[in-house]
Amino acid sequence: MAKFLLRSTYTVDGMKGLSKDGGTKRADVVRKMVENAGGTMESMYFGFGADDTYVVCDLPDHKTAAGLAIDIRAAGGLDTRVTPVLTPQEVDQATREKVEYTPPGV
Known about the structure:
Blueprint: E1 2-10, H1 12-21, H2 23-36, E2 40-46, E3 53-59, H3 62-75, E4 78-85, H4 88-95
Antiparallel strand pairs: 1-3, 1-4, 2-3
């Protein structure tokens, strides 16, 4: 499983729906959506600022994450961005990967 951060911003209609449904119901909807996609939701938070929601979840792969983002945005109510995230252990493994690279102009 791969870990992802889904950041979303409500549209005006989405915010009206949130006002009607409340945060707990929205979190239940998101949890079920992630689980139906074969993943698990680690956490969901609401924020004030550039983004309205933050969801950390494990999903089977990048295609699944892209599919969720497409379906969420197509349904209306939210603009969603998906960011793959790495654990500290995965970064440790990445730093041990050696690649051959020449920077521009060298």
